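Its record is quoted verbatim for completeness.
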Amino acid sequence: MPRTYVRKSNRVQWSESDMLLAINSVMEGRMGYLLASNTYNVPKSSLEDRIKKIKRGKSKYEVFRKCPATEKCVFTDELEGMLVKHIKIMVSRLFGLTKTDLRRLAFQLAERNNLNHPFNKETGLAGLDWVSGFLKRHSELSLRSPEATSAARAMGFNRSVVSSFFNLLDTLYVKHAFNCTRIYNMDETGLTSVPKKIGKIISVKGKKQVGALASAERGQLVTAVLCFSAAGHYIPPLMVFPRARMKSELLDGAPPGTVAVCHPSGWMQQHIFAEWMRHFISYVKPRKEDPVLLVLDGHATHTKNLEAIELARAHGVMMLCLPPHCTHRLQPLDVGFMGPLSTFYSQEIQLWLRNHPGRVVTQFQIASLFGTAYNRAATMQNAVSAFAKTGICPLNPNIFTDVDFAPSQTTIPCVPTTNEISQDSLPRERTPSPQAGTSKEGQIFPDPISLVSPKDIMPIPHFKKTIRPSTRRGKTAILTESPYKNELAGKSTQSVIKIKFKGKGKGIGKKTNKENNQEDSECLVCGEKYSLTKSTDEWYQCTACLEWAHESCIGCSDQELLFFVCKNCE
């Protein structure tokens, strides 16, 4: 059947389920043909024909299917409903089906349920016409381009973690009675001379490749530190330029009040964050009698920065760390500001290149382009709505639903709640169904439970192994509270010894060498002895138990190694 088929008659407009009820009523002797036809609004002649076929021993497919030669009528309404529900569950778990996956699943579903179908048995796929008709019958489904979501974010954003964060936030609300003018969020973003994404342009049809001019293959990175309040008050940005010396020309066109620092990497560092904290305090002017709340992510330059934490404590700044891998949902700047800023910044770069042919964007133009984009994105509405969407201000711990936490169910071994139990796993009424029923002496005994569901063919992914929490990023905590600050101060007094091996047998992973200490240390993660380690491997010492481990086994960054604590000492 063509995908653009237009119906030319009004025949077979009755519901198949109504026809089945009418057949059962006649065969059970409760109604006659005419009464059943009028009661269930089905043609009397069609009702008679189907009952005659049942009595002659015809198959259920020949009796109940209205158009067996077309792909449209392969599945019953019940099976299609189960297929739609399975697609929605897979999308919520971030395992959405492609068009080819759907075609393959439809073919296997028809084969496993012994349905008569016109699908291609050589390729094992349903036809494109069936897919087109399926999407038309279920308008709530459509083909979409998914956004890549890391596994860490899918696992990290779960109900228990988010509940812990909101419990800490509620404690701060009760203790300090914060209002929207005293709640701030800060975050860093990277600005490059090459835009991250270029908008669509109008081009000629049929052209294989359409290009857009860029300043370079890979642009220079400048970090911008942004901050705003729940009332729409913006703190002037701080920009980190990847150079050794500062030039005043670098800030031409930057947002008013912007400050700049230099570092060879162009990334945030601990001393730079402490400097930003002074910049923040000078604008907000917090006091211990009138504190402010600063919500920020768990980057090591924030959470392991004793200087910044002591500075915040001295001036009445309460620092609340977001849970790891949850900033895409809980950080207001990520939710409502970074997207518009990135779009406007890319537009400004394209406009600048168009107005300055033969030139490229360098560090000296980034501040000006960023300033124009920042002024367009820094609206009060964006700030207020961003805080509201995260549930931080106004406080709303129930802002996120089961749908938002669905991706984390893949890695959380738990008994499903009432809302998470699939509909097809619940007991169903034994209603007549031509695909699931059997006939015996002309009587229908349907058995929907015997149906092979899409979930049986393509199970919902589930990881049953227990996941140990990572210590590489800061956990959700009030950083300016005394317990956290004292713990951090205690760790900072311990030094981590880093030994770079230059050959086997020239050290043992202890403070003394092998000649003075015959003990051959083992990696506390993989158990490999130092004497057998590769010459290129580096070992690090736990600050608590003083045991050693490979750098590749613990997976910490250089900034986090100073505070490395093994799993056994957490």
Q: What stands out?
A: Confidence is low (pLDDT under 50) at residues 66-70, 413-447, 465-473, 494-519. The chain is about 35% helix and 10% strand. Residues 260 and 462 are 47 Å apart (CA to CA). The domain at 494-569 is CATH 3.30.40.10 (Herpes Virus-1).
